[in-house]
Amino acid sequence: xxxxKTLNFTEFRARVGDLRGKEFWRSLEELSRSDVFDEFFxxxxxxxxxxxxxxxxxxxxxxxxGASVAMAGLAACRQPAEAIIPYVRQPESIIPGRPxxxxxxxxxxxxxxxxxxxxxxxxxTKIEGNPxxxxxxxxxxxxxxxxxLGLYDxxxxxxxxxLGDTATWSDFIGAIQPVLNAAKTNGAGLRLLTQTITxxxxxxxxxxxxxxxxxxxxxxxxxxxxxxxxxxxRMAFGSYVNTVYDFTKANVVVSLGSNFLDEGPAHLRYxxxxxxxxxxxxxxxxxxxxxxxIEAGMTSTGSVAEHRLVVKPSQIGEMANALLNGQGSNxxxxxxxKDLEANRGxxxxxxxxxxxxxxxxxxxxxxxxxxxxxxxxxxxDSLEVAPTNQLASLQELVRDMNAGAVNALVILGGNPVFxxxxxxxxxxxxxxxxxxxxxxxxxxxxxLHCHWHIPDTHxxxxxxDARGHDGTxxxxxxxxxxxxxxxxxxxxxxxxxxxxxxxxxxxxxxxWFAHGATEESWRRWVHDGVIPNSALPARxxxxxxxxxxxxxxxxxxxxIELRHDPTLYDGRFANNAWLQELPKPQTKIxxxxxxxxxxxxxxxxxxxxxxxxxxxxxxxxxxADVQYRGVKMRLPVWVVPGHCEDVATIYFGxxxxxGGKVAEGTGFNTYPLRFSDALHGGPGAQIAMSAAxxxxxxxCTQEHQSIDPKVVGERGIIRAGTLxxxxxxxxxxxAEEHGSDVAGEGNESFYKPYDYxxxxxxxxxxxPSVCTGCNGCVAACQAENNISVVGKEQVxxxxxxxxxxxxxxxxxxxxxxxxxxxxxxxxxxxxxPCEPVCPVEATSHSEDGLNDMTYNRCVGTRYCSNNCPYKVxxxxxxxxxxxxxxxxxPMRNPDVTIRTRGVMExxxxxxxxxxxxxxxxxxxxRRVRDGExxxxxxxxxxxxxIVFGDMNDKTSAVARLKAQPQNYAMLEELQTRPRTTYxxxxxxxxxxxxxxxxxxxxxx
Amino acid sequence: xxxxxxxxxxxxLRPVTxxxxxxxxxxxxxxxxPGHNFATITDHISTIVLRRKTPFGWLIxxxxxxxxxxxxxxxxxxxxxxxxxxxxxxxPVGWGMDIINFVWWIGIGHAGTLISAxxxxxxxxxxxxxxxxAEAMTLFAVASAGLYPAFHTGRPWYDFWLFPYPxxxxxxxxFRSPLMWDVxxxxxxxxxxxxxxxxxxxxxxxxxxxxxxNLWVKRAYGxxxxxxxxxxxxxxxxxxxxxxxxxxxxxxxxxxxxxVSFDFAVAQLPGWHATFFxxxxxxxxxxxxxxxxxxLAIPARKFFRxxxxxxMKHLENMGKVMLATGLIVAYAYAMEWYYGLYxxxxxxxxxxxxxxxxxxxxxxxALWVCNGLxxxxxxxxxxxTSTFWLFVTAMFVNVGMWLERxxxxxxxxxxxxxxxxxxxxxxxxxxxxxxxxxxxxxxxxLFLFVxxxxxxxxxxxxxxxxxxxxxxxxxxx
Lengths: 1004, 477
Prior knowledge:
The structure holds 2 protein chains of 2 kinds. By secondary structure, chain A is of the alpha/beta class.
């Protein structure tokens, strides 16, 4: 603390108490005129104090009044005080109605992904990926999309609290001072607990703090643990490393329990690179890769793998050992080993984050053996400021807390009371610390157990920096001044260091100016969102040590697999309703976590198959009792095809007790199953259906159990084939190839078809071959189009509002099926069945072929939805839109109407974006260029599975895709002439493992 | 009953008839029991209305029905206040009990017009004693039916947009939409039915006016009698108007349910998209209508001791109509299978399979039992002439016709083209309260009708007694 004389309220009160005699004060107004007050006020609010001190003359008064009236309407405009630099256009002034885009970055698990933030009149409204950021390349995931809701979350902590009561920042400064003074000698007893930090400037601040208090210790803990990868890297290379994959060069990819396409800091980039190799286009060289996945539960990665070996989580190590020893102990491994041999230097092994260090070390060794290091795999130094074994770090902290060695604990972010391993009994230890501070976005479980709570700032509210998956540094620039008086991490650290005057902006700027920035380069970095060439260099001559085989784990009973929740992460997003309502990739369950088992296991634990199917049909299920290492828990059971037998996968993250209205009471807290020696679960669980026949409603958006696979197949909804089948007959997916007599001749009509030839003809092609089912598009659509959240009860009633859904179909063996993802937006049929049935013409056709909805004309007969064969229309059964919460008002996209109750809505192909581009084009006297209109789903998609454009422009990307031989229209025999079409899914199985005859081409 | 003391029992009024030995099977069942003359008919029917004391049984029944109306009002208040989300509808199933009940009531509303208009034109004199009752039932059923389309919309306060009226938006409704056609069909039907019923009532209202003793009652009936004095000119105009209205109503019997069936047939949903829906729906409507007339007539006849006027012949004839239309309906159910399977269309085939073996198979089986099997009882004269068996059959048909609409509407919608979007439908408690409430409204109106208006056409019944025939013959001379 620089200024020891800063007044606080205690002192102020004391000084007022000193006033004597005539100095009685009659009112607060009179008191406020006292010198004491002035002095206090000036110190508290230096900027505001100045004009008051000067006194206000008549002219100034008029000016101030005028200004305040003029500004009254701008109360929502909260531009940060410091200059921030727009991404695309440098405005002379802000043009109302024209959004600006600013580059920033969002961190998850400490690692940054670059974002572009759309800002309307200084209100951030939408997140896109930053095309210049290597971890994004313009794509975004659901966490990024939903972070905009996180910013405006009304349940965010808004005030400093002392023992739960409202306090002030200065109170906190005052309170921590004696603690710091006591620690002054060497800082022993002072502890800092953070999450993973890759931010160079924060790292420097912490180093400064550690230098000030040499005895102080810094601990790090993230519930979504990367310790396996860290320690595996250290086993292989002697120190903590970071592994970066380049899937553009990999012909064969082997996943050892890794969900690299949908999880981890680099997944957007990896999905882009990996799927870039899976686009089969007529006239282009075929470079299709092949994915072998070894996993237990079905992940997004496993769902798109050509070959998926289903083994228990504990056996993945054995499989890794077998690969390491070159033993083709089963047909899968034998074929894989052959394939690897043929693709030396062009394969990649990637081990799952849940895998133990040994498996990671083996993956490194295998990469080295097959010559991948330097080609598909790059080893760099760790991204983190201080990589450490976080579990060990947390264990050490708990040990010291229990020993009474910790006098003060400052927790920056995270929620260890909720997410620390259960056997550490973190709360018990924490309660022994005499001074506890928690800095977080919500007043959560940990805040409740701390003396002080400091509200955090959202990443869109403050300055910062962080590294991307390859080490590239991004400057995080704020879009809006803190909405709720939050304090940035750097400010809290500043309070500890004593640099109270330094704003987060100054802290970041100072660091980078000390590290080579100039005014010019700083502006460019902030503008671009990345610091060029800041990626970490490859380690020269990285040769892994020979690994020791992964230890065999004796498997008994049912094995528990613990994974972080796909939409809530470690629980930090539990108060984000968009993420709560986002269907989880494989199960399509919202608002809940369940115990996922395979079909056989479900019967083994006593869940009758007919009962189960009947329940799933009605969107409900039954409970099972789990007994695992002395912990008993009741969880709803959910069956997923392709899930390993005798394995129960349980997501952790939901089940929060504190942290906001949405978070509380949704899902089940499964952290009690998480032990520090088995963070990702282990064998020995006893699971049996609960005796009570209690029915639990499950908000699942797609049922599956009771559907006969033939029903899907004969409808031609999903058309899929192998690469070999495609090469033999590229038109394999066309209806006439299957003896259909209706398709193909589609133009026969009594009426003359409408002529679109001189207009735009907006169209979309979706390539399910490259879709991982990650939901990024669904979240993006929700953010772009102000789509309401309806809540669990309404989803159970089958009333979810998402305009875009990802349908999931299985084919083949229920124990290990092929999975197909199919994003379904509105098909924008040229002969739309919804249009003629609307009695009030609320849905009609635009001249460029869009099937438009006129919300304010809709009376809500729902006939259009009944007549829509694709069932893409969504009805506001209740008043779903939140018109009242003030903080949500600035969040909404001002270009999209908020729908009232009783009104039908549906995908518009982002008509607001089309119109913006058309207006621009018209002003410039030209046609809209290809690629100028990008729909929200298309923009978010990491694998570029969605392509949109004008199909009248024969050179456009969408027209070229429509000309592909595998392009087909869903339900084409209905003659709806949909503008959205699909490319048949093409996979590249190893002929040794899947004989050609097994693939009939058109199935689903 | 309180009225028992005021009038001697009916059988005492009958003259003793001589026994004639004619084998029973050759005796036609009379449309009016023998022994009646103009006076007894007028007395008997008008007394039901004009007697001072309200029967206790009526009061109880009316109060129960009023309770239903209260439930209806509460449901409507909640519905308008909160939205159609209080129902069980969802994303694959956009129409549920709202449209089921609409079609059910509209179907019931068919018997009145059929009996009044078509049978009038066909000179089926047995219709006379039941037509007033059936017409009233039609009107009230249409009123109950009308509630559903009016309140099933998401924003019922904008329902007027469905009418073609000049407006500042210079926007017409979508004339291609079957819902638009519904608006015209149902409103026309309601208007013509009401007119037909009212015109037919005028001579009887005059009778009541003349026989009423209370001045205000006299004035009330007098106002509605529109100055009817029974002059030849009046009768002449009446006959013309009535015949014209009958002619107007006749096509409506066919058109209303034809157009209601278009709501489904025009859509492309498997299970809806079928060209044979119009005749199938019309037959179903007549089927349902006669079942409901029987359901109401059998107890009413007993309660008001109208066995002389609504004779077994009426009931038996209605049983026969039920059998005939029931067979048409069963034929349609069978034809659905033929069309579905013969088409070879996967969606049609699946739809049928799903009906029979899907989650709603019980409803489908019950439908066959109620509408296919139960009416077969009507082959037997013993059942046709037994009020008990007639009533049982009619109840089966009432339920069966509701099930038919359930099978057509939600059971087709819940599993359509895209497998991913399949769902389930269950009526919520508010669906049921709306339904029960609309039944309450129907019965409340019916109770008011039987208390305040002659439920059997007095003047038309008078044409059935032998004096009327003699008089007519004499006129020819």
